[in-house]
Amino acid sequence: MASRKKQRIILLVLGGVALTLSTVLVSLAMRDSLVFFFGPGELTARAASGEITPDRRVRLGGLVEVGSVERGSSGARFVIEDGNGAIPVVYEGILPDLFGEGQGAVAEGYLRDGVFKAASVLAKHDENYMPREVADELKRTGRWREEDALSEGLPRASGS
Questions:
Q1: Which end of the chain is more exposed for a tag (fewer CB within 10 A), N or C?
Q2: d(CA 68, CA 78)
Q3: What pTM value is reported for the model?
Q4: CA–CA distance from 8 to each of 5, 13, 62, 135, 150 (Å)?
Q5: Contact present, 89 and 115 (Cβ < 8 Å)
Q6: CA 44, CA 87: separation in Å to the nearest integer?
Q7: Of 95, 84, 78, which Cα lies nearest the Cα of 39?
Q8: How far apart (Å, rounded) are the C-alpha atoms in residues 120 and 46?
Q9: Residue 89 and residue 73: Cα distance in Å, rounded?
Q10: What is the dihedral of CA 69, 71, 72, 74, to 10 degrees?
């Protein structure tokens, strides 16, 4: 009788350990697959504080600085800015057709030595679209343009 009770307790303990271990493993796997979005000012500040390391994949969003795009045979260099900061971006690949200066863009990659090494670049896909993260960052930094608000179907600013 005591051995049967002991077997149940051992089985429950082993089940609890297995459940805990699987929960930890799933949490670690999900954490590694999360990619956070930052504007240039916030990304620079977090990198300076050590919160963002060179091996941490992130998304950088903002406006492509006018006059900053340099296209080469294997890729491009440009600057993404948000009013609080600017970060040079290096991208090896073909930029989207609608990528342009003064337009919203989101690059995904790594910040290393003050230069963002992009693995992918996304641009506005038409006149009526801007990634929500980019729009929110532009609003937060005061660089929001009324035509951007209208293209998203948002109400005009008060007094307009």
A1: N
A2: 5
A3: 0.62
A4: 5, 9, 58, 57, 65
A5: yes
A6: 8
A7: 84
A8: 21
A9: 16
A10: 100
